[in-house]
Design a protein that fits this description.
- By secondary structure, the chain is α+β, with helices and mostly antiparallel strands.
- It contains 4 helices and 6 strands.
- It has helices at 10-15, 44-49, 76-81, 83-86; strands at residues 2-8, 21-24, 32-42, 60-73, 95-110, 117-119.
- A 6-stranded mixed sheet has the order 2-5-4-3-1-6.
Length: 120
């Protein structure tokens, strides 16, 4: 099964249903179910921005999701229109938005992450 690593708090925001689009600088032809891996690296700026006080799981598989489609953001205006879905301020032309559905939290288990989609 495919896995995608995300920094915290991004993985947790997806699990809570607050983030429905994962943005990347690279595109993928992959569509389907994958596992969400919370990497050991934290996005400290986003945690501070959110005033996050919850302890976040890291270095573990924490959930699953279904990648249904990819949005190509080729303008900053279009990117900003979907801010409430991706919560990112980092636009680079182009930016790709992975549309996530059927997100589920699962019993976490340790796993070393990798870049891009990887197989377990």
């Amino acid at each position: 099964m495919k896995v995608l690593s995300l920094k915290q708090p991004w993985a947790e925001l997806i699990l809570q249903g607050k983030k429905r689009i994962e943005t990347r600088k690279w595109n993928t032809k992959f569509r389907g179910e994958f596992l969400i891996h919370a990497s050991k690296t934290l996005d400290k700026d986003k945690i501070k921005e959110l005033n996050w006080e919850n302890e976040l799981e890291t270095g573990k598989i924490v959930g699953s999701a279904f990648l249904s489609s990819v949005i190509v953001y080729d303008s900053e205006e279009r990117f900003k229109q979907d801010y409430n879905k991706h919560m990112s301020k980092n636009f680079k032309n182009p930016t790709y938005g992975f549309v996530l559905e059927s997100v589920q939290r699962i019993h976490s288990y340790p796993l070393k992450g990798k870049l891009g989609f990887f197989e377990v």
